[in-house]
Amino acid sequence: EAKRDPGTSYRFYDRQLHISAGYQLRLETDLRNALRGGELELYYQPRIDLATEEVRGVECLLRWNHPERGLVGPDEFIPVAERSGLIVPIGYWVIEQACKRLQECTELGFPGLVFAVNLSFRQFHDRKMTETIFRIIFNANVDTSLLELELTESAMMHDPEYAQRCLRELNQLGISFALDDFGTGFSSLSNLQHLPISLVKIDKSFVQELGQSADAEHIIRAIISLAHSLQISVVAEGVETEGQLEFLRQQHCDEIQGYYFARPMPWQDLVEFMNRRNQSACLQK
Ligand code: C2E
Ligand code: MG
Ligand code: MG
Ligand code: MG
């Protein structure tokens, strides 16, 4: 197989590329319309505090209700949105929407819920990032200490100085930051202490290898102990089993997020989920 005629494989590759370029363009046009046409929606996945078992917050996760293709997940369209730059306006829409829901939470009787929003590296190319986010949260009049922005290490790579300045300015407004997918990048761990990061999220790939790989255990232990020594909290992502949960509890992981507790869900389902939990908490008292 490896010794296939190079001419043939080139043509094959070329055709693949061609299809994929056309597909990309179509996706990009559709996505532009989706933002205008209200086809984008946020799903919310609860994050549970391991010590108190309370819902500490929710991560806002983008979904696209495509008129023909149904519900499309972010792994399919975020890369296109990033390449085209559309992630910039989409990203602001996400923050606006999250702020709206944050306000509603107070009215619904679950105050203090943290709303976490993902930021793409590409949003740090926007020179008006801080200004725009400031305007959004000012207009929404939300408690900024309940707003958390998740970024990956790649966000800092294009222009580290600018990115750090954005983080500091937003942090001064009360917004906190989480480092997402932690462990998968090239984190120089010492970098953490120079940034206003209050949380790291252990990537789900490590959590899902628990019980199958001793390395995963060592890595998770090391991340938790390093983070804690820097006064940084730890969330484990992708927790699906009791066994994973128990290991994380023993390691004093602060919070967990995963299908074991709840999947990402539409806003109405989250409201019901929260009401159910509040009710059973009252019964226990
Ligand atoms: P992420 O920020 O690391 O989000 C966590 C992902 O893990 C979500 O996938 C969530 O549904 C999934 N997940 C949570 N618990 C489990 C579990 O127990 N098992 C498994 N298998 N998966 C679990 P989702 O919603 O498909 O999002 C994928 C990625 O898309 C996100 O990864 C994030 O990088 C990106 N994304 C989502 N929404 C946004 C957004 O508004 N803006 C930007 N820039 N990126 C976004
Ligand atoms: Mg995230
Ligand atoms: Mg993640
Ligand atoms: Mg991710």
Automatic annotation (TrEMBL):
<protein>
    <recommendedName>
        <fullName>cyclic-guanylate-specific phosphodiesterase</fullName>
    </recommendedName>
</protein>
<feature type="domain" description="EAL">
    <location>
        <begin position="24"/>
        <end position="278"/>
    </location>
</feature>
